[in-house]
Design brief:
By secondary structure, this protein is an alpha+beta fold. Helices cover 32% and strands 35% of the residues. It contains two helices and four strands; from the N terminus they run βαβαββ. Strands 1-2-4-3 form a four-stranded mixed sheet, covered by helices on one side. It is globular, with a radius of gyration of 11 Å. The model has no long low-confidence stretch (mean pLDDT 96).
Length: 74
Amino acid sequence: MEVNNDGLRCPMPIARLGQMLLKAKVGDLLTVTATDPPFPSDIRAWCRMTGHTLVSLDESDPRHYVAVIRKEER
């Protein structure tokens, strides 16, 4: 599953991810893209708080971030 949040500002990238996770099964991987500067710190904190796994976070382009999240059982 892919969640494109390009152009959206906080809190929408995280809110849209939460909506997509409702449709996902445990173990599914979601690729999330975002352009909002706080996204890297937001996604790290959100994963810690929700128990989902941040598999990877590409911050090589400071204007475009790509995170891969694995849905965990909660």
